[in-house]
């Protein structure tokens, strides 16, 4: 019901339909989750090899999973791969808790960053995209975010093109079907 195709370099709109219509972003929420984590790495607040303790909340989260285990410690970079490549809800919550102390506090960081980027029609209430009241964005705002990811974190941008990731003996394929065409 909504889409926007832009030139990533110039930002020129190539085609759009209802690009400013607020909709539930589902797993595209994880673009902002990965942005915040990459930003914290770049700022030196966390490091790629820092161990992240997996909480019961992260472990119990339904939907797409990286299959991390409660009580285990997983490096930030592996969790970031789990978010980007496997769309892991468990990895998203583990990182949110590690960065901000709780998923609610992380959502506050997401909203503040959205405003700084000029994403004026977005509001986040979780790090995963799990359906929730008042959790929405637009195709236009996601295009702003995509350009920011490419511009601000080229060191992590290649993660989005990786076709698979193996963690804990489980190999999962990237859910971006465009990589397979």
The biggest beta sheet is recorded as: 2 strands, antiparallel
Principal-axes shape call: globular
Number of strands: 6
Order of helices and strands: EEHEHEHHHHHEE
| Assembly category | single chain
Strand order in space, largest sheet: 1-2
The total count of helices amounts to 7
Query: Percentage of helical residues?
Result: 40-55%
- Which parts are unreliable, with pLDDT below 50 for 5 consecutive residues or more? none
Q: On the 0-100 scale, what is the average pLDDT?
A: 97
Structural class: alpha+beta
Percent strand: 5-15%
Query: Ends: how far apart?
Result: 23 Å
Radius of gyration: 16 Å
Write a short abstract of this structure.
With 181 residues, the chain is an alpha+beta fold.
């Amino acid at each position: 019901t909504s889409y926007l195709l832009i030139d990533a370099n110039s930002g020129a709109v190539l085609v759009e339909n209802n690009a400013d219509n607020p909709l539930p972003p589902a797993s595209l929420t994880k673009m902002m989750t990965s942005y915040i984590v990459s930003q914290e790495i770049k700022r030196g607040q966390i490091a790629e090899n820092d161990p992240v303790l997996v909480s019961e909340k992260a472990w119990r989260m339904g939907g797409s999973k990286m299959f991390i285990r409660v009580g285990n410690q997983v490096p930030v970079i592996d969790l970031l791969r789990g978010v980007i490549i496997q769309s892991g809800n468990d990895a998203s919550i583990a990182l949110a808790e590690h960065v901000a102390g709780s998923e609610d506090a992380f959502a506050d960081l997401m909203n503040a960053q959205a405003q700084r980027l000029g994403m004026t029609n977005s509001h986040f209430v979780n790090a995963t995209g799990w359906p929730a009241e008042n959790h929405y964005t637009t195709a236009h705002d996601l295009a702003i975010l995509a350009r920011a990811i490419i511009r601000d974190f080229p060191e992590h941008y290649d993660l989005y093109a990786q076709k698979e990731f193996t963690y804990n003996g489980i190999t999962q394929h990237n859910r971006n079907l465009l990589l397979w065409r």
